[in-house]
Design goal:
The chain is built from eleven helices and five strands.
């Protein structure tokens, strides 16, 4: 429900805000008590919450999915807000949300989860292993929460073509190690050429900081520079994603052509080279 106060658009009462963010009203109040969420605009005894409150709640949920504690999120929020205008903070939240990528959590009952896979594919042992890897967790209500819907979709698709789920988890572990290393390389590029150098070549951080570490106090950055760095990191995230996807596509094409030739399907192998 959108408020109809004169001159005020897109404001919500606390219950409507909680519903839009997918959290309980008590959770909104908890975040306010812990100073993770700014106070509402008061109209008499009614609090009105704007788009920046909704953006903050969604950001908190995304950071929790990434493994941040509420205390850690509080420190992050405090660092961004220190000396920043409201517009700068909202901009930083949008940039951080973009950097976190396309993850979307999904909540299912245990029966629904099992039903997504072929019969007997998802065993208790595999569920325990997936839980240990952080791919799913059990909720207090007895359901199952997957922090990233893509694992559910791709895992089920692979199982349907005959790939055992233990092999899927093996590949997940191996790829995670490789891609963590790739992510560190892109982060080092950001530190060396954007954070330290900046567009004007000015160095930020201590000159004696170890390679790959900026050792910056966020309070030393003015709001405009924070916004600039957030935007640059979002650009780097998108570029890194495209580069990794393109490199994987090229590698899969090379390996795929080899497999097709071994099967005597040279004509189909040539067809995979045709970009049209």
């Amino acid at each position: 429900m959108v408020a109809t106060l004169p001159g005020v658009e897109d404001e919500l009462r606390i219950d409507d805000l909680a519903r839009e963010a997918g959290v309980a009203t008590t959770t909104v109040r908890l975040y306010q008590r812990r100073r993770l969420l700014p106070p509402p605009r008061l109209e008499g005894r009614t609090g009105w919450y704007g788009p920046h409150h909704l953006a903050r709640l969604r950001l908190i949920a995304r950071l929790q999915d990434e493994g941040y504690s509420l205390a850690g999120i509080g420190r992050l929020v405090e660092a961004w807000e220190r000396g920043s205008s409201l517009d700068a903070v909202v901009g930083a939240e949008a940039q951080l949300d973009a950097i976190l990528g396309g993850r979307r959590a999904v909540d299912l009952s245990a029966a629904d989860l099992v039903g997504r896979f072929p019969d007997d594919a998802l065993t208790p042992t595999l569920v325990q292993r997936a839980t240990a890897l952080g791919l799913l967790e059990f909720t207090a209500e007895g359901g199952v929460r997957l922090p990233d819907h893509r694992f559910l979709d791709t895992g089920a698709a692979l199982a349907r073509i005959g790939v055992p789920l233990d092999a899927v988890l093996d590949e997940w572990e191996a790829l995670t190690a490789l891609l963590d290393a790739a992510a560190e390389r892109f982060a080092a590029v950001f530190d060396a050429h954007v954070l330290r150098g900046g567009p004007s070549g000015a160095t930020e951080g201590r000159a004696d900081a170890p390679d790959g570490e900026a050792d910056l106090d966020p309070g030393d950055l003015d709001p405009a520079r924070k916004e600039e760095l957030g935007a640059a990191l979002a650009v780097l995230h998108r570029a890194a994603h495209e580069v990794v996807a393109a490199a994987l596509d090229a590698s899969l094409a090379r390996v795929g052509r080899d497999r097709l030739r071994r099967l005597g399907l040279d004509g189909e192998a040539e067809a995979t080279d045709d970009p049209g």
